[in-house]
Amino acid sequence: MTGRRNDPWDKPWVSIAVVIGIIAVVAIALVFFIGSGNISDQSLPGTTTPIPSGSGTQVTQVSGTGASQMTIKVPTTVSIPVTGVFVKISYIGGFAGTYGVNGVVQKVRNSGDRLYEITNATGNVSATFKKEDGSTSHDITVELWQNGKSLTSAKNSTPFGTASINYTL
Question: Hey, CA dihedral for 84, 90, 96, 102, is it positive or negative?
Fold first, then answer.
């Protein structure tokens, strides 16, 4: 029996199966190492168009991607009136605190530059505001204004920092 051995490489389908297997392994490795191609959490290409919508809010529309609109709050500058007593708080992030006169205080929570009027301001004016984030790059500033003139101010740049003022009118 000197017959020829049955060599699997003699059959063409074996070579084709091996080539397809190698391509499949390479494709799976590429997907695994490079990513699945899902760009839902990545920034989308396209052009952005700012659309003013009033009251310190800007809507940015991304065209060419089918993406929804984003709302970006643009900080507005506060102008101090020439009459009255006001507490001005300035912070790019969120803040919370109290302000008032003679122990009667109002609680507020906001962000950006804000101006709060204190009516019938006679006596001890106080204001205490705290940053709601751990930023060290930006100060929270609290100022007391009367008739368009700054009377006192305090600021803090520490994470979750507090700025307080007390002033007798």
Answer: negative
CB 114 within 8 A of CB 97: no
Which helix (H) or strand (E) element contains residue 27?
Answer: helix 12-34
The pair of structure tokens assigned to 22 is 């190698």
Over the stretch 86-112, which tens digit does the pLDDT of each residue have?
999 999 999 999 999 999 999 999 999
- Going by C-alpha positions, the residue among 165, 158, 166 that lies closest to residue 139 is 158
**Predicted model pTM:** 0.57
Side chain identity at residue 79, one-letter code: S
Residues present in the chain in total? 169
Q: How far, in whole angstroms, is CA 167 from its chain's centroid?
A: 34
Tell me the pLDDT tens digit for each residue of 38-68.
544 444 444 444 444 444 444 444 455 555 5
Quote the CA–CA distance of 58 and 117 in Å, as a whole number.
26
